[in-house]
Design brief:
Number of domains: 2
Number of strands: 10
Number of helices: 8
Distance between the termini: 51 Å
CATH superfamily of the largest domain: Jelly Rolls
Oligomer: single chain
Helix content: 40-55%
Order of helices and strands: HEEEEEEHEEHHHHHEEH
CATH class of the largest domain: Mainly Beta
Length: 212
């Protein structure tokens, strides 16, 4: 395996890369396969080398809510592994996926050293996830789903044409069906429009009013 080609590890020296190669095992998943279930105990560090993985939970009504997405290259659920806690949600492949698995016992001694190149890889990964969490929490604090959606659309207007409704729903902690109902109402009221399956804002002033 050529870990050097994975951006996450591109800055590592040859010695550290050699260590990873010696302990990593490759695992492949097809679209829709489960990587791990909520409540399972992590036993390996998971490196997403190719493809996409989504993480989801179910609400009290049994609706599936996507709470996160990972695109290669990325570490997956490393905090649960480091803390030896159970996975808080279920992970499923969103495409054909290649995962490298490394046993905790093989890697932990190197991560625990502050000066270790591997420690910096984990720090960088966790920092990016904290930044994403801060963005999600901004919208999660808005209790009204329509106001939450309006706020997101305004903040991310330049990216709307490339964001899928599934991705928007994930950022808003809504089910795809729930978001679809809100967008349908927005469209009927002339607030948004869909052109060639891409979403655009049609009435920014009204959305700002809804967002509060």
């Amino acid at each position: 395996m050529n870990l050097k080609q994975i951006g996450l590890f591109a800055s590592l020296d040859n010695e550290t890369l050699g260590l990873l190669r010696s302990v990593a095992r490759s695992r492949t998943l097809n679209l829709g396969e489960i990587l791990f279930y909520a409540g399972e105990e992590p036993k390996q560090f998971l490196i997403l080398a190719h493809g996409e993985v989504e993480v989801f939970k179910h609400d009290k009504k049994g609706n599936e809510i996507i709470i996160g997405e990972f695109k290669a290259p990325s570490l997956i659920a490393e905090m649960a592994t480091l803390e030896r806690t159970t996975y808080p949600a279920t992970a499923r492949s969103n495409s054909d996926v290649i995962i490298y698995e490394i046993d905790l016992a093989d890697l932990e001694p190197y991560i625990s050293k502050n000066s270790s190149p591997l420690a910096q890889v984990f720090i960088n990964s966790l920092t990016k996830k904290i930044q994403h969490l801060e963005s999600v929490l901004k919208y999660a604090t808005i209790s009204n789903a329509s106001a939450r959606t309006a706020s997101f659309l305004i903040d991310n207007e330049q990216q709307l044409s490339i964001l899928t409704q599934r991705k928007i729903a994930s950022n808003l902690m809504l089910t795809p069906e729930g978001l679809s109902r809100i967008l349908k109402r927005f469209k009927e009221n002339g607030l948004v429009e869909v052109i060639a399956k891409k979403l655009y804002i049609a009435n920014r002033a009204k959305l700002l009013e809804i967002a509060g």
